[in-house]
Design brief:
The chain is mostly helical and 318 residues long. The chain has one domain. A two-stranded antiparallel ribbon has the order 1-2. Strand 1 and strand 2 form a beta hairpin. The protein starts with 18 loop residues before the first helix and ends in a 12-residue tail after the last helix. The chain binds a DNA duplex (21 and 21 nucleotides) through helix 3 and helix 6. One of its GO terms (molecular function) is transcription cis-regulatory region binding. Keywords: DNA-binding, Nucleus, Repeat, Transcription, Transcription regulation. It holds the Pfam family Myb_DNA-binding. It is found in: Nucleus.
DNA sequence: AACTGTGCCAACCGCAGTGCC
DNA sequence: AGGCACTGCGGTTGGCACAGT
């Protein structure tokens, strides 16, 4: 037996909203505030489902919504967060003031996905498409085919290949994340551990977890130029991590920086356990195998570790 | 001008999570 | 503990606008 309908479907209007209906919702919200959406149709005199009212307000009528198109910084932000936490649009939207989950989702589906494919990156796994082809059936993509697939000039594929070579030539780093960390070159701005902690914090917050006090301390100790406090978020969405934060330096990023590699390593009581990176990010992040010192989701490959996490992480917590 | 294809975005739908009784 | 109501999320769809033929 299925779930009962949330409202009387036969007596509910569907389709585009009229200006009058919008005005009624705005009037209702200004008087009664947010919440109790099931009461809204009755009290506002609308023949709409409560869910529909909520959606209309949150996605269209909210006063803090941005109308302009997505900036390159926002694009980079979405790609990065998608690579980190998967298609958790509402979480991603929380890091983008003025954007709704629907906005982000639509933008991803209509623009970013295609853009990544054009760059030779699989939008689901964030791996190079050529690499996936190798995995699926051992097809060795030729230079020409790689060129054709990227739709451009294979620039990204070549870059990935080159990075891969560096990566593979340093198997010691690959096999032991701690060795990898020790072998890491100095990254500009602040150290790798801090970067990883910052990534973990983002993942934790996105996973609904309350950040450990020491994590927020870590962030508070980040260099001033990175953690510029420009928070002016006006979003009504709750745990708002405002801002401009990841913005600034995202300009310098290339989307290949967000590539996820084949193998990530778990530390298991000192033993190394190889796990596939293919399960969805949701599974990884939500996994009970989440363990210290570094959770699987944060055992990023060399590419990502080299990634200069030069975001403006200015996170506000409730 | 008419038709077709494509892109985009608002809205819908079904399900999961949560809190209350 | 279990049922119910409500809220929120993510996937999908409908339809409009525009470009191309």
């Amino acid at each position: 037996m299925g779930r009962p309908p949330c409202c009387d479907k036969t007596n509910v209007k569907k389709g585009p909203w009229t200006a009058e209906e919008d005005a009624r919702i705005l009037s209702y919200v200004s008087t009664h505030g947010l919440g109790k959406w099931t009461d809204v149709p009755k009290k506002a005199g609308l023949k709409r489902c409560g869910k529909s009212c909520r959606l209309r307000y949150m996605n269209y009528l909210r006063p803090d919504l941005k109308r302009e198109s997505f900036s390159p910084q926002e694009e980079n932000m979405i790609v990065f967060l998608h690579a980190t936490i998967g298609s958790r649009w509402s979480t991603i939207a929380q890091y983008m003031p003025g954007r709704t989950d629907n906005d982000v989702k639509n933008y991803w589906n209509t623009k970013l996905k295609k853009k990544l494919v054009q760059e030779g990156i699989d939008p689901i796994t964030h791996k190079p498409i050529s690499e996936i082809m190798l995995t699926l059936g051992g097809v060795q993509p030729s230079r020409t085919s790689a060129t054709n697939e990227t739709g451009k000039n294979g620039r990204i594929s070549c870059l990935n290949r080159d990075l891969k070579n560096v990566f593979m030539s340093r198997s010691d780093s690959v096999l032991d994340p701690m060795v990898a960390i020790q072998n890491m070159p100095e990254t500009s701005g602040y150290d790798l551990l801090t970067q990883l902690q910052a990534i973990r914090l983002v993942a934790d917050v996105s996973n609904g977890a309350t950040p450990m006090p020491e994590m927020t301390t870590v962030l508070s100790e980040l260099p001033q130029q990175i953690c510029t406090s420009t928070s002016t978020c006006t979003s009504t969405a709750a745990p708002v991590a405002d801002s401009t934060r990841i913005g600034n330096a995202a300009d310098d990023l290339n989307w290949s920086d967000f590539l996820v590699d084949d193998i990530i390593m778990c530390i298991d009581d000192g033993r190394h356990k190889e796990v596939s990176s293919t399960p969805s990010t949701r599974e990884v992040i939500g996994s009970s195998t989440y363990m210290d010192p570094m959770p699987p989701s944060l055992l990023l490959d060399r590419h990502e570790l080299d990634f200069n996490f030069d975001f403006d992480l200015d996170l506000d917590f409730p």
